[in-house]
DNA sequence: ACGGTAACTGTCCGAACGGTCAGCTCTGAC
DNA sequence: GTCAGAGCTGACCGTTCGGACAGTTACCGT
């Protein structure tokens, strides 16, 4: 019985993620999660101070990566900012598919979170758009940037039956086209399977 | 006092839309809506059989347009299907910005609706993607299609400070680029302010 | 042997909320 | 005048759910 303790927290997180994705945050009660892992609701609340804390802990990993990206982007501009942002965002999206779906499907609830609140999300989004737009103030560039990010986001949230490689390539191609940064429209074989070397993103990312 | 009756229903709808968009569907109680228009909760439930009915009625107009589009698309294919789908979808998105935001932010809740349920939404989405992809089965085309739609959707949901014309042009340009259907990359002035004539969509749309 | 503490649970509670119902009021038809 | 019915409301109800709390058990250091 020595091992029962250390595992519960993670098992609770796993169950919560599964259920939140399937039924939505509000659509899942604490009792549901507890029942799913086979422990008491009180036990669940021993591990997490409240329901929101579960959601926060689930989304923290993604949040941190996005925060880090945001910081890294602050010292870039122009096409470099744009490309870095797109590549990294695609990477994050693919690495956290289920969390992205959770976020996508429950935007209204996540917005009310104390740690990942509206102002935080909106701020980050704004700066991401700014980077992807290559710091351009032209509405058309900013809209295109938002479309690219939205497209990646929405596509990442839809659990498609494609493998990560296909998805990564298609997402990159699509986003760059959206931004009219298609990497040599004539040379479509270049960014194929091999990833463009910058895909091993600069930082820890 | 003769006029109080006929207006309430619409005023309730307006308040509900406002509050749902601001605080989310679940985050808005029937009492909130009633208080906002200054009538009783019972009165609210006299006009709508239940809370879901409000959301349904709010989203019905968009739903109907999308259904109609879906039907119209069924007899098209190739680039024609793709272009029609994109143009119409952009039009619908712009015409129902607030409803789109409502939908975007509350996907989990909308999915549980009896009339606009998961299978309906997923089915429509699937067929829309199919059309936008020009009936291609190539994963890359389908992903690009999903990205284009997702980009339009997400961008429409973000209430941007741009006028409809700018938005329409940028959305179309972005989506067509995403799909690699850029309308004569050399001739960017063509689909500018004038709308491409097909924008006055065939049907009642 | 024993005190402390981490892990876990059964039970209870209060609040919020969706929804019901009996009834009130006003208006318009006959 | 009166009857019907539409519009509206206050009061009430049942349930659900998040959360609090007082334990209990098992382990561990001393």
C-alpha Rg of chain A (nearest Å): 19 Å
CATH architecture of the largest domain in chain A: Orthogonal Bundle
For this structure, the quaternary state is: homodimer
Give the largest interface.
A-B, 45 and 45 residues
Element order of chain A: H for helix, E for strand: HHHHHHHHHH
Q: Let me know the average pLDDT of chain A.
A: 89
Tell how many strands the DSSP assignment of chain A holds. Answer: 0
- The end-to-end span of chain A amounts to 37 Å
Number of domains of chain A: 2
The gross shape of chain A turns out to be: elongated
What would the CATH topology of the largest domain in chain A be? Tetracycline Repressor, domain 2
> Strand percentage of chain A, roughly?
under 5%
**Percent of residues of chain A in helical segments?**
55-70%
Poorly predicted regions of chain A are 1-5, 186-205
């Amino acid at each position: 019985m020595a091992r029962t303790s250390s595992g519960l927290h993670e098992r609770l997180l796993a169950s919560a993620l599964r259920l939140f994705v399937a039924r939505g945050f509000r659509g899942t009660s604490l009792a549901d999660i507890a029942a799913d892992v086979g422990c008491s609701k009180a036990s669940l609340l021993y591990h997490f101070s409240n329901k929101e804390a579960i959601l926060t802990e689930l989304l923290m990993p993604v949040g941190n990566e996005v925060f880090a990206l945001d910081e890294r982007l602050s010292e870039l501009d122009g096409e470099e900012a744009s490309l870095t942002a797109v590549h990294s965002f695609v990477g994050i999206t693919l690495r956290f598919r289920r969390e992205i779906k959770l976020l996508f499907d429950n935007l209204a609830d996540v917005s009310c979170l104390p740690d990942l609140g509206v102002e935080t999300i909106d701020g980050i989004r704004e700066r991401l758009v700014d980077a992807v737009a290559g710091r351009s103030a032209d509405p058309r560039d900013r809209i295109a940037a938002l479309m690219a990010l939205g497209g990646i986001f929405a596509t990442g949230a839809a659990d498609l039956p494609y493998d990560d490689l296909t998805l990564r390539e298609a997402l990159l191609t699509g986003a760059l086209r959206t931004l009219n940064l298609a990497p040599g429209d004539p040379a479509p074989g270049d960014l194929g399977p091999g990833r463009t070397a910058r895909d091993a993103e600069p930082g820890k990312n």
